[in-house]
Structure formats: structure tokens, C-alpha cells
User: What shape does this take?
Amino acid sequence: MRVPLFATLLSLLLVFDAHALELVHLKNGFTLEADSHTAADGTLEFHKGSGTVTVAESEIDSIEAVSRPGEPARDKTGASASPDKLLADAAQAYGVDAAFVRSVAQIESGLRQAAISPKGAIGLMQLMPATAADLHVNPNEASANASGGARYLRELLLRYHGDSVRALAAYNAGPRAVQKYNGAPPFEETQRYIVKVLAEYKKQLRANGLTANVVSRKPGLQPSKPSATD
Assistant: This one.
């Protein structure tokens, strides 16, 4: 999801542990290790010991915070349940097809709570700090992250009357972009994102022996206990 630079900087302050090691996954397949980083003018400067490496934001796939070798792993998720369990529970709570929620999480983060996007999106459902704040959830806790993502998807699906393409476009590029273009915006990133999520959703449905017209209508949106205005 797109976000101004100041929000990226805020997210970095919120997310990274000073004692953690950062794994920087580049789009060319390489991975860098860093102690910390700073962002400015579309680039990220990674610090390792006394050296620095500057990388364009567009070249970065994701940034992952992990425990340093020899240190005990820190449980920042607030839950010991598996990603599938957390996502399924969140989907059930908000009446969205669990396969759809899982598909979004798979494409967003690879089901990893430690995944941090170059733009500052956090965890399983890649919630931006501002979005998480609007939803009143802590994006650094896996269970809350899954819950917030499922709730946001439900809100978008209700807003667009079950149109999964518009809902996914808004999840990636923001509702304003969808409103501006009266549908999915012509951003290459967003177009690829929609295709990937829907392909993953169809894959999940086939694995479960199910089929659905996921391109234009409802991806399993069902009544749930929370109201549409929650």
C-alpha cells in the first residue's frame, strides 16, 4: 500500500528493535544484512558496523527484522498460534472467506509476521501504521495484525459491494486511487498485485475442492457478528 515518506519514517521508529538484525531482501534475489537504516529521497541507507550501503527503495522487496545469531528469538507476535490459525480465526470473526484473507497475507508477506515492506507496511497483512491506528490494532502483534487485516478487507468488500478487484486495489493503492480512477488504478504494481492475489485465491479454492467467480463478485463475504460500521 502506498504511503508518504513521513509515514515510512514513523513506521521504522515503531517497528525495528535496536538489537535486531535486518535482512534486506532485494528484488534481484540477493539479501543484505544491516544493523539499522535511514530513509531519504526514495533511497534507504543501510548501516553495518562502520560501513553504509545506499539502495533505491524501488530495488527492495522487503525488510525482515530477526534475532541476531546466538540470541534467543524474541516473540513479538503476542501469540503462539500458526499463521493459518490466526488468519482463519480473523476471517471467521469478520465474515470473510478464510481462503481470501490467507491469499492476501500470502502475497503481502508470505505469511510472515516479521516481514516489513520498504514503505513500512508491517507483518502478515502488511498493515501501514496509519491504517493500524485507524483500526485500533497493534500491527506488531500477529493476532491483532491478522484481525485488523481481515476487518479492513471486510470494510472494503462492503464498500465496493463485494467487488474483489476494487477491494484489492484499495487495499494496495488506497481507496482514493480507486475513487479517482473509478476502479482499479492503472499502476503496474497494483495491477500485478490484484492478479497475484486472485490467482492465489483460486489456488486455495482448488486445494479445498471449491470454485468461485472471484474476479468481479463476492469472495466469500458473509454475515458476521461485527456490524458493517465497526
In short: The chain is about 40% helix and 15% strand. The radius of gyration is 18 Å.
